[in-house]
Design goal:
Blueprint (H helix, E strand, L loop, with lengths): L1 H4 L10 H5 L2 H30 L4 H8 L3 E10 L5 E12 L5 E8 L8 H6 L5 E8 L7 H15 L8 E5 L5 H15 L19 H19 L9 E5 L3 H12 L3 E6 L4 E3 L6 H9 L11 E3 L11 E4 L8 H6 L4 E3 L8 H9 L3 E3 L1 H4 L1 H16 L5 H26 L3 H20 L3
Parallel strand pairs: 3-4, 3-5, 6-7, 6-10, 10-11, 11-12
Antiparallel strand pairs: 1-2, 2-4, 7-8, 8-9
Helix pairs in contact: 3-16, 6-7, 8-9, 8-14, 8-15, 14-15, 15-16
Bound molecules: NADPH dihydro-nicotinamide-adenine-dinucleotide phosphate (NDP) and 2-oxoglutaric acid.
Length: 439
């Protein structure tokens, strides 16, 4: 509880009045509820898998509890001279299989989601971590964002490192943020390209990382369709919530594969075309600074309607907690493919199961990002750049192998794919824990 409270941002200067007026406290309470409910949701899913494995209670507790949580305050002088204080955190879950690894999120409602199990599902040699700053980056200038990022590095530099904990992009953080991160860290610790992944390609980044989470999602869907005898990518209609890094790349690749992307949304609006949107044109439209809903190749849609839009494959690719029981009852698709972290609540999950809607869980579906991050890190250690086809081919192999592992547990144990993914991951983490020993 105490550490979650530290997530709430305090502001000095212009914002102090709002804070005193209670607006800030209300926002803090919302963040706290959001953070704790997301962590609880993850643990609910995890317990379901643990129930299937006959592990002693002490080992279960070890697997459920993060190893380290760090909360820091970042004091930043804004362009107008005011001082603002942002709360930031890094949570490190389990490093039995290798250094901690995971995204860094800039969002007003940061949440403590968990990639420990994801790295194990993908069978890459990392443990999990997650971090973020409680901030709405759209309210900061680029200079302020850079200053805040550099302050973050200084504040957490002792618990991160090439062989310690390797952050990466997540919501509202991108290659530019990772470049600042790498540069600031290298000032203190010497040249360290492997301290973050998702860097620009010209600055020790990997070809293929930017598209990797969307590409991995596409490979994941292909495998699922095959297993369910639902045909090919080209045979399906897709609706996608979120048109950022993950959503836009998934849309692009599904469209290139011949699929019909019938609706997409972002935080401001949505656009739909039941015959399929031209995603190439849509991306150009958005890149030119236009809104999704003003796209002439489709009709405007209320963004709330994206999740209930009729389709074969629904892809939440934005924020967590969007599919609760009420939404799950209204969803109009055959499968839900969780490209976002934590889009379905445990209650929503039960409703989807009862309705016979297959859910491909986040810890597998969006594992393409961390997988190509791993490839980037390996290239940094080798000081060598791989060809993009090589990266994509290796990613395909990892996604296919991981799917085969979770599908076989799903069939053998008769459990949903989410439980199967946690079982696979828990078995791998536990094996590493036990073989390393506890002394
Ligand atoms: N980037 C990566 O490699 C990975 C990302 N993920 C997960 O994927 C998800 C998306 O991440 P990413 O694409 O990187 O993030 P981005 O910040 O690039 O994009 C997020 C998208 O979601 C939209 N969005 C934000 N809030 C809402 C909302 N309330 N309703 C509808 N849409 C909303 C944004 O709209 P707008 O642009 O208008 O703000 C934007 O289109 C997150 O859950 C993240 O944790 C998981 C693994 C790896
Ligand atoms: O690339 C990474 O290391 C992690 C990406 C991420 O944020 C995630 O997998 O949730």
């Amino acid at each position: 509880m105490a550490s979650a409270l530290l997530l709430c941002g305090k502001q000095i200067g212009g914002a102090v009045g709002r804070l005193l007026a209670g607006e800030g406290l209300a926002a803090c309470a919302t963040q706290l509820r959001h953070a704790s409910s997301h962590a609880e949701n993850t643990n609910t899913f995890l317990r379901e898998a643990l129930n299937r494995l006959d592990y002693p209670e002490k080992l279960q507790n070890l697997l459920l509890t993060p190893r380290r949580e760090m909360s820091v305050e970042l004091v930043v002088q804004m362009d107008d001279g005011q001082i603002e204080v942002f709360n930031a955190y890094r949570v490190q879950h389990n490093n039995a299989r290798g250094p901690y690894k995971g995204g860094l999120r800039y969002h007003p409602q940061v949440d403590l989601d968990d990639v420990r199990r994801k790295t194990a599902v993908m069978d890459i040699p990392y443990g999990g971590a997650k971090g973020g700053v409680t901030v709405d980056p759209r309210k900061l200038s680029e200079r302020e964002l850079e200053k805040m990022t550099r302050k973050l590095v200084v504040a957490i530099k002792e618990i991160i490192g090439t062989y310690e904990d390797i952050p990466a992009p997540d919501m509202n953080t991108d290659a530019k943020v990772m470049a600042w991160f790498f540069d600031e860290y290298s000032k203190y610790k010497g040249f360290s390209p492997g301290v973050v992944t998702g860097k620009p390609v010209y600055l020790h980044g990997s070809l293929g990382r930017e598209a990797a989470t969307g590409r991995g999602t596409t490979f994941a869907i292909r495998e699922l369709l095959k297993a369910l005898h639902m045909g090919k990518l080209a045979d399906q209609k897709y609706a996608i919530q979120g048109f950022g890094n993950v959503g836009a790349w998934a849309a692009q690749l599904l469209w290139e594969a011949g699929g019909k992307v019938v609706a997409v949304s972002d935080v401001a609006g949505a656009v739909a075309n039941e015959h399929g949107l031209d995603i190439g044109e849509l991306r150009r439209h958005v890149a030119a600074g236009q809104t999704l809903s003003s796209f002439p190749g489709g009709g405007s849609l209320a963004k709330e309607d994206i999740l209930t839009f009729p389709c074969d494959v629904l892809i939440p690719a934005a924020i967590g907690g969007v599919i609760g029981p009420d939404m799950a009852a209204k969803i109009n698709c055959k499968v839900v493919v969780e490209a976002a972290n934590g889009p379905t609540t445990p209650e929503g999950d039960v409703v989807l199961r009862d309705r016979g809607i297959t859910v491909l869980p986040d810890i597998y579906t969006n594992g393409g990002g961390v997988t190509v991050s791993f490839f980037e890190w390996v290239q940094n250690l080798q000081n060598f750049k791989w060809e993009e086809e090589d990266v994509n081919r290796k990613l395909d192999r990892k996604m296919s192998d991981a799917f085969a592992a979770l599908w076989s547990v799903h069939r053998e144990m008769g459990v949903p794919l989410r439980t199967a993914a946690f079982v696979v991951a828990l078995q791998r983490v536990t094996r590493a824990e036990v073989h390393r020993g506890f002394d």
